[in-house]
Amino acid sequence: MNLIENAPRGLALAGFLVSSSASNDIDRPITPQYTSDAAATPDPASDPRLSSTRDAIAALALRSRTMPDVAAIRPAAVDATHQLLDTLLEGAIQSRLPWETPHVATEGGGDLTLRWSAGGARSLSLHLTGTGPIEFLQAWGSDLREMADGPLRTGAQLLQLWRWLHEG
Q1: Which end of the chain has fewer surrounding CB within 10 Å, N or C?
Q2: Distance CA 5, CA 55 (A)
Q3: Tens of pLDDT, residues 62-86
Q4: Dist CA 115 CA 53 (whole Å)
Q5: Domain extents in the chain
Q6: pLDDT above 90 covers what percent of the chain?
Q7: pTM, rounded to two decimals
């Protein structure tokens, strides 16, 4: 089942990340299971680890509305980005993977791109339009010349990309 491409407005990630490595349940919906770990919070939407990223998105959206030389960011791209961040943080918490604040950039046509780097040897970019599938770009190697890209199809794939960024 293609959870992301068939979703309204191009995104349906929430609730589809799993921390299990069993192949038969990798795409099953999950129930959040938060621990007493101080790093875990029950509501990713209000988690302070996302506040600087949300602030950066809001600043870019404001700039795009007030500066004539900057393409306006689509509200759907902003909504999709917030949903993706909530889902990714929840998956990272459940999988006990580290969280890092992404670099946020606008793209022509009102799209947003999130980019993370791991030690200069790996990077992960997610391109969000809010109207179509989320596109990913992985880059690796000493000069980041090796690449793989494509549409993000499931929440499990998102978590796999996050694990790749942090664990190799």
Answers
A1: N
A2: 27
A3: 887 787 666 788 889 999 999 999 9
A4: 11
A5: 8-167
A6: 49
A7: 0.73
